[in-house]
Write a structure and sequence with these properties.
The complex is a heterodimer of chains A (210) and B (203).
Chain A: H1 2-21, H2 32-42, H3 50-71, E1 76-78, H4 80-87, E2 94-100, H5 105-119, E3 125-131, H6 138-147, E4 153-157, H7 166-169, E5 176-177, E6 179-184, E7 189-193, H8 201-209
Parallel strand pairs in A: 1-4, 2-3, 3-4
Antiparallel strand pairs in A: 2-6, 6-7
Helix pairs in contact in A: 1-3, 2-3, 3-6
Chain B: H1 2-22, E1 35-38, E2 43-45, E3 54-59, H2 65-81, E4 88-92, H3 104-113, E5 120-122, H4 127-132, E6 136-137, E7 139-146, E8 149-156, H5 172-181, E9 195-197
Parallel strand pairs in B: 3-4, 4-5
Antiparallel strand pairs in B: 1-2, 1-5, 3-7, 6-9, 7-8
The chains are: A alpha/beta (210), B alpha+beta (203).
């Protein structure tokens, strides 16, 4: 069992290395579902051996975690100038900028609404998630993104001196999250909401700036 | 027609007055007395502190990572300033129904584990947090005693580095209290900070 586990781990690393080397995504050739089945087959416990049964779960989960982490997108760490550029962007798209953190329960609760909006692929709307976890928690943020299978762009804003930038996002913002800023660069209209989004709020706010 | 106009003007004035009365404390405002239950079961009032120079009121909680990051610094503020007449009074405004880790029992456990030598009060009705206009945790209000009144002298965050106390080079609350102790104006009386929004009760 351990040999198979190590084999699985090595295989994975090799996959990743090869994919990096070829500058391509290994999961185009080995979709996660196939890999999943492969792992399950390889990690079957030997009958009648309780040790193997005990060991199976964590190793399996580890492999699964690796698989999902590798297939999902990652958060980019940015400084405020990048966020400022997003706020000032001269684009035809309505910018929907949401401030959140993995530790913020109401933020996590409203994320599906933003994911749903992003998934509509509406060419007139661009959704960006500004993550406010500490920069040394990047791994935790990436694991969260993988676990929730998030598709929306996530930028981790590494600016700990909040008073240097909070007012530049919106003067009315007290600093509590979640918060959402919606800007229409074409007419300069903007909406700022510093509370939890409810179903339909995003669509309503976007309609208001259009 | 004229009487109708008058009526409208009166209504408008009334609504403005109403709006004014419901807004939260601003810098320089006098704070109404409050009475809340401490983790030891005893009631604590702001007026209990009238023999001091002021109070550092901190809306705080058990569960927010920002509160946890600042926990030792809050304990440190009381150690440094209680003897100088500016003790800390911590108030937890979170609704335990939404944040079970902020129940009265959990508050008592944290206060015991961290050896709080200051009150940690339960704002069960959330009325005190509303009156102050607290929005997140931790959220600090430094009150200066002025005659028999307590007046708001600083509103905001503790310092400019949540993650690392040793890297903070703007210690807003300490600077404010130091200035008040020397009867000087507070240089930065208002700041903002990212924090966990207070978990308000579902109305």
């Amino acid at each position: 069992m351990w040999i198979s586990a190590i084999f699985c781990g090595n295989l994975f690393v090799s996959f990743l290395l090869i994919s990096k080397y070829l500058n391509s995504n290994v999961f185009l050739y080995f979709p996660p579902k196939i890999l999943h089945g492969f792992l399950v087959t390889f990690l079957q416990p030997l009958p009648g051996n309780p040790v193997h049964n005990n060991m199976r779960k964590p190793v399996f989960l580890l492999c699964l975690l690796l698989a999902s982490a590798a297939s999902a997108q990652q958060a980019n760490v940015i400084k405020f100038d990048k966020l400022q550029a997003l706020i000032d962007a001269k684009s035809d798209q309505v910018q929907v900028i949401n401030f959140w953190a993995t530790w913020c329960a109401p933020c996590v609760k409203e994320l599906p609404l933003l994911e749903k909006l992003n998934a509509t692929n509406d060419p007139t709307v661009k959704v960006t998630l500004i993550n406010l976890d500490f920069a040394d928690k990047l791994d935790k943020v990436n694991a969260f993104i993988a676990r929730k299978n998030m598709k929306t762009d996530v930028l981790l804003l590494d600016e700990i001196d909040y008073n240097t930038w909070i007012d530049k996002v919106d003067k009315s913002w007290g600093g509590a999250i979640p918060a959402t800023l919606i800007i229409n660069p074409k007419n300069g209209r903007r909406k700022f909401l510093d509370k939890e989004l409810q179903e339909g709020d995003l669509e309503k706010l976007i309609a208001e700036v259009k | 027609m004229k009487t109708k106009m008058k009526l409208w003007v009166m209504l408008l004035c009334a609504s403005v007055l109403f709006a004014g009365s419901t807004t939260s404390y601003q810098l320089g405002d006098s704070v109404s007395d409050f009475k809340l239950k401490n983790v030891d079961g005893k009631m604590v009032s702001l007026s209990d502190y009238k023999s001091g120079k002021g109070v550092i009121v901190i809306f705080d909680c058990n569960t927010c990572p920002y509160s946890r990051a600042y926990n030792d610094r809050i304990i440190g503020l009381n150690k440094k300033y209680a003897t100088q007449g500016f003790p800390v009074v911590a108030i937890n405004p979170n609704d335990p129904a939404q944040s079970p880790g902020d129940s009265f029992e959990e508050m008592a456990a944290v206060a015991k584990r961290k050896h709080y030598d200051f009150p940690y009060l339960e704002d069960a009705s959330q009325e005190v947090a509303r009156a102050f206009g607290a929005s997140n945790t931790p959220h600090v209000f430094v009150l200066k005693k002025d005659g028999t009144d307590f007046k708001v002298a600083y509103i905001g965050t503790i310092d400019n580095n949540t993650r690392d106390a040793s890297a903070a080079d703007k210690k807003y609350v300490e600077d404010a209290v130091n200035a008040l102790l020397e009867n000087k104006p507070v240089a930065t009386p208002k700041t903002k900070a990212i924090g966990c929004g207070i978990r308000w009760k579902n109305s």
